[in-house]
Write a structure and sequence with these properties.
Metallo-depent_PP-like; about 15% helix; six-stranded mixed sheet; 11 helices; CarboxyPept-like_regulatory; Metallophos_C; single chain; alpha+beta; Calcineurin-like phosphoesterase C-terminal domain-containing protein
Length: about 600
């Protein structure tokens, strides 16, 4: 029998949090100088709380129950999915099997019978895993990594720099999956934390992640049911950093799950089927699914690396596509589908080039379902809604646009941990769309899904940055756009002369803004005026350049490092009145998202002679 498989020792929780106080006002001041931030109206997000030892005391710790095999020619793998009442990971005589649970070998999907039994065909290199059902939770190891799988690779990995998988020998005589009853996954209200691109290249960057997003998650206790899903580029090519990743997930207050990205590869693998062997050995399956509430989460492996060049493509491969088809077929129609992959299915930024190869097949499999798609990879935030259309998508989508919401999740690392160092223990790292680093949460009630983005070091109230796009700024941007990290600072960026008012916009970068969002501006307490979105997503091309850029983000990144922000799908602008008097003026901006939540911030600027 195999007890706690894959666990790593970790220091006590109190020694692992790194940063104490979180400087909430700093992130607001960084991207909206002299702006005051107000809490969102109509917000349904749970309040952050000090989770301390709650999860650590109650977490279901254990592993898959493996009976060593003796038959090298065995053609099937069998076992039981059972309710582990005493949390021992072993099935005792009084612990019942659980019927109707999906189990897979990575291609076929079967469901357990009335006694919790299953049987699946054996493949030479496979991962057998259980789909966590609603009302139950799989065990986690000492680092909070979910344990719901068994890798079968009789001879082990070929020689790999980072080790890969050890030889497993014959198929186990029995492969049993323990579950514990869980009110956290039963409730129809779920909160799923989604982290993209942690992408630590060294221990220093791991400490940035710890002081930022992981410190925020350590203070929350709302995701114990759905857990935290990290959607690829968990590390940055050095796969020994998976140990540091586990050290970070040990601070969480819920189960951690992972899917691989293009920087999680065994680049020295001689064959595609071993590209992610070290990832599998350290973190789990390449792809899998699990249920929480009335949501079915599907985690996909979307990076294909040929093993002969440094290039990679986006795709699922025939085996995974077959699994996806079988997995979705086993999901009741009254469930919402959360489809997550490292690379987005489609995206605004690379709308004419980046796409998953089997996109139409994926859309066909999901037709008629309630779906939301998640991706990371590009280190920016995008909120694309049903019906949105860019010129680069027309060959695939026609004039109908997207069939469901596609979210690109802002990176935990932001713009690869670049930029000015902050007292909070991490760099500014503003991304190429102007969004600061953070974590996405899906708030789910029954099958209704509401997304929210929490900027690292903030409580969720700060959702936009305000600035002035003046002729003087555009000249500065054009002259310095190739000097990210070394450009001279622009003096008095919130000042505009009277004769340039007619060519000046007040800009609002609404980080989770989308089609259906509105931005209204009151100048000096006057009547609200609606700002115009720079990208309508009605089939146009991507608009790039100084007049479509985010001044506030570029004023930070061009002198100090980060992303060049010259295009974004969530920027609104309002031309300032040409008759404003000389002196100080205040603009109050209220942004309303597609779910009706309001966020209000203000900025003071000056008109000069």
């Amino acid at each position: 029998m195999n007890p706690l498989s894959g666990s790593h020792p970790r220091p006590p929780r109190s020694a692992r949090l790194g940063v104490g106080a979180l400087i909430v006002t700093l992130s607001g001041a960084l991207l909206a100088p002299v702006a005051s931030s107000a809490a969102p109206a109509n917000s349904t997000a749970p309040q952050a709380s000090s989770a301390t030892e709650g999860w650590n005391e109650t977490a279901y710790r254990g592993g898959v129950d493996v009976f060593e095999g003796s038959d090298a020619d065995r053609k099937t793998v069998t076992g039981t999915v059972f309710v582990d009442r005493n949390r021992s990971s072993d099935q005792d005589g009084n612990e019942r099997g659980l019927a109707g649970v999906s189990v897979s070998n990575g291609r076929a999907v079967t469901t357990t019978d009335s006694k919790g039994r299953y049987e699946l065909p054996v493949e030479d290199n496979m991962t057998v895993f259980v789909t966590q059902p609603r009302g139950y939770q799989v065990p986690v190891d000492d680092d909070n990594v979910a344990q719901f799988h068994y890798h079968h690779l009789p001879a082990g990995s070929p020689e790999l720099r980072y080790g890969g998988l050890e030889p497993t020998g014959p198929v186990p005589d029995e492969l049993n999956f323990p579950l514990t009853a869980s009110t956290e996954t039963r409730t129809p209200e779920q909160h799923c934390a989604i982290g993209a691109d942690v992408q630590t290249y060294n221990a220093k960057e791991a400490e940035y992640a710890r002081a930022g997003v992981f410190a925020d998650l350590a203070e929350r206790d709302d995701y114990a049911g759905c857990g935290a899903l990290f959607i690829g580029d968990v590390v940055g090519d050095d796969l020994s950093m998976f140990d540091e990743t586990r050290d970070l997930t040990g601070t969480l207050n819920g189960p951690a799950r992972f899917l691989p990205g293009n920087h999680d590869l065994d680049f020295d693998s001689p064959a595609r089927e071993h590209n992610f062997d070290t990832f599998r050995a350290q973190l789990g399956p390449e792809y899998f699914s699990y249920d929480a509430g009335k949501a079915h989460v599907v985690a996909l492996s979307t990076i294909e690396y040929p093993g002969t060049t440094s290039s990679y493509t986006y795709g699922l491969g025939e085996r995974q596509l077959e699994w996806l088809r079988n997995d979705i077929a086993a999901v009741p129609e009254d469930r919402a589908i959360v489809l997550a992959g490292h690379s987005p299915l489609l995206e605004f930024w690379y709308s004419d080039s980046h796409r998953t190869k089997q996109l139409q097949e994926i859309y066909d499999i999901l037709e008629g379902r309630e779906v939301i798609s998640l991706g990371g990879h590009t280190h920016m935030s995008e909120n694309l809604r049903e019906g949105d259309l860019m010129a680069g998508w027309k060959d695939l989508l026609g004039e109908d646009g997207l069939p469901f919401t596609h979210l690109t999740v802002g990176a935990v690392s932001g713009h690869w941990y670049a930029g000015r160092q902050l007292d909070a223990g991490y760099p500014t790292s503003v991304q190429r769309d102007g969004t600061p680093p953070g974590v996405l949460t899906l708030d789910i009630k029954n099958t209704e899904i509401t997304e929210r983005y929490t900027v690292r070091g903030d409580d969720g109230a700060h959702q936009l940055s305000l600035g002035l796009n003046t002729p003087r700024y555009r000249d500065w941007f054009t002259a310095n756009r190739s000097k990210v990290g070394s450009a001279p600072e622009l003096a008095e960026p919130l000042s505009v002369s009277r004769d340039e008012l007619a060519g000046t916009w007040l800009t609002t970068n609404f980080w989770m803004g989308s089609t259906g969002s509105t931005v209204q501006v009151r100048v000096d307490g006057g009547s609200p005026v609606e700002a115009e979105r720079t990208q309508q997503l009605r089939g146009e091309d991507v608009r790039i350049g100084a007049e479509w850029s985010d001044p506030t983000a570029n004023l930070e990144t061009l002198p100090h490092g980060g992303g060049l922000v010259e295009r974004t799908m969530h920027l609104w602008r309002l031309e300032l009145p040409s008759d404003l008097a000389v002196g100080a003026h205040t603009a109050e901006v209220t942004a309303t998202d597609v779910h009706g939540r309001e966020f209000t911030e203000s900025v003071t600027f000056e008109v000069t002679e």
